[in-house]
Design brief:
This protein is 1% helix and 47% strand. The protein has 359 residues and is mainly β. It has one domain: Methylamine Dehydrogenase, Chain H (7 Propeller), CATH 2.130.10. The strands form 8 sheets. Strands 1-29-28-27 form a 4-stranded antiparallel β-sheet, with no helix packed on it. Strands 2-3-4-5 form a 4-stranded antiparallel β-sheet, with no helix packed on it. Strands 6-7-8-9 form a 4-stranded antiparallel β-sheet, with no helix packed on it. The longest helix is centred in the C-terminal third of the chain and has 4 residues. The relative contact order is 0.13.
Length: 359
């Protein structure tokens, strides 16, 4: 199935003239962006061995408020549900926690809270009713997902996966896992050491990113083939599943010969649940209407986009522009841009054009 994919011209092209670049960006490629669930505080994980936390509530260019240091590049970061803690995960196989307390300006404490036998590719945090402390969930290239009570040295549970973990997201009590060889897993966190479902990937090539539809009725996946897919958890909605091509450009002005770019990030709008973004190695991010199968706006920014995230009310869209490592270490030169940009979101850009009967 194809989206209405109007050329990136005229009224389909979005305005980035009011986008603001954060001061004091990381010194190397940016791995992941994560907004606090309670405030306009942004965590930024980087290959420069750090997670930086910016406060953008008082300054449009952001204020650096805290730094979580690692002995190796950081691949992922996440907030605790109450916004008091930030966790990062690195290529050394460790996850480390920064406890900000009730005030981001207060004294903070750093501790290692997890360890794997290979790099941790992704980390998330969840609050469960049976524990006063949030639970850290780590997914690694050692083919394991581990669950950590922050007060204990050893994992409280381990899930052995069929392949290396590439991406992971939580919605309620559902954990969505994307792995190597196009494997997808759904985990019911009431039984965290079992894979509840292993749905077939809608895409044929390596998955780069996953994102839940708000509410957890379904999810989107993006891959290296310039394609995105939306699947629903309930198999009775199977007819609503679809895939579409994106982040492609005609080669030598020949529409039949296309350059294909990886889809590096997919993010759903927190208020308009049928609106989501994709961002790719082509240096463009787009807003889409999932139900109307229509691209709302396209924003060419130049430079590969590695990570994206809407803030808690959807008024700010953060995106990182930096080297995406698609061509290996030798191509990571100083010529690549390296920045975190904040885009003020308007209803004209992201509000669905019409309500439909699709879910």
């Amino acid at each position: 199935m194809s989206f209405s994919n109007t050329s990136i011209i005229s009224n389909n092209q979005g305005d980035i003239s009011k986008d603001v670049t954060l001061d004091s960006p990381p010194e190397d490629s940016i791995s992941e962006l994560a907004w606090s669930p309670i405030a306009n505080h942004l965590a930024v994980a980087s290959w420069d061995k750090s997670v930086r936390i910016y406060d953008v509530s008082r300054s449009v260019k952001g204020e650096g408020k805290a730094l979580l240091s690692f002995p190796s590049p950081v691949l992922s970061c996440a907030w605790s549900p109450d916004g008091s803690k930030v966790i990062g995960a690195g290529t050394d196989g460790s996850a480390r926690l920064l406890d900000l307390g009730s005030n981001i300006n207060s004294g903070s404490q750093t501790q290692q809270v997890a360890q794997h036998d290979a790099p941790i590719r992704t980390v998330r945090m969840i609050q469960i009713s049976s524990s006063q402390s949030p639970i850290a969930v780590t997914g690694s290239w050692d083919r394991k997902i581990k669950y950590w009570d922050l007060r204990q040295a050893n994992p409280i549970g381990t899930l052995v996966c069929p392949e290396r973990v590439y991406a992971m997201e939580i919605s309620g009590t559902q954990l969505l896992v994307a792995m190597a060889e196009c494997n997808i897993g759904l985990v019911d966190l009431s039984q965290p050491t079992l894979m509840a479902k292993t749905p077939q990937s809608p895409l044929k090539h390596q998955i780069r990113t996953v994102s839940w539809i708000p509410g957890g009725s379904g999810y989107a996946v993006g891959s290296i083939e310039g394609r995105c897919g939306v699947n629903y958890v309930d198999e009775s909605n199977k007819s609503l599943n679809f895939t579409f091509r994106c982040h492609r450009r005609p080669k030598d002005n020949d529409p039949k010969d296309q350059m294909v770019y990886a889809v590096n990030a997919v993010s759903f709008h927190p208020r308009y649940h049928q609106t989501f973004s994709t961002a790719g190695s082509d240096g463009t991010f787009c807003f889409w209407d999932k139900d109307a199968h229509h691209r709302l706006k396209a924003f060419p920014v130049g430079g590969a986009i590695n990570s994206t995230s809407f803030n808690l009310d959807g008024s700010i869209f953060a995106y990182s522009v930096s080297y995406d490592w698609s061509k290996g270490y030798s191509h990571n030169t100083r010529d690549h841009p390296n920045k975190v940009v904040l885009h003020p979101v308007t209803d004209a850009e992201c509000k669905p054009k019409q309500q439909t009967s699709r879910r």
